[in-house]
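Lay summary. Proteins are chains of building blocks that fold into shapes, and those shapes determine what they do. In this project we predict the shape from the chain. Here is one chain we studied, written as its sequence of building blocks.
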Amino acid sequence: MEPTPNIVVELLGTVRRRAGLARVPIRADTLGQALLQVQAQCPGLTDLCRPDGRPQPHVLVNINGLQWVGEPDHVLRPGDVVLVMHADAGG
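And here is the predicted shape, written in a compact code that computers can read:
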């Protein structure tokens, strides 16, 4: 039986196009766990993060639209929305 998701990873811009989906509900306690799970579930995102779960330099990660993060051990709380986009997504 699959564990009940506790967070949602929302994929934006180029990351969304490459993944072929907009949202990935998962169960993860840390940012690293979340990114590794998304990378495993989305074959188009094989370069999303490093083996330790740290985002690649071309990837930006934001929690709930409030905080930019990059440390794989950043603790996630139930209900968090992790936004993932390419670093060049800005204007």
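What the prediction tells us: The two ends are 43 Å apart (CA to CA).
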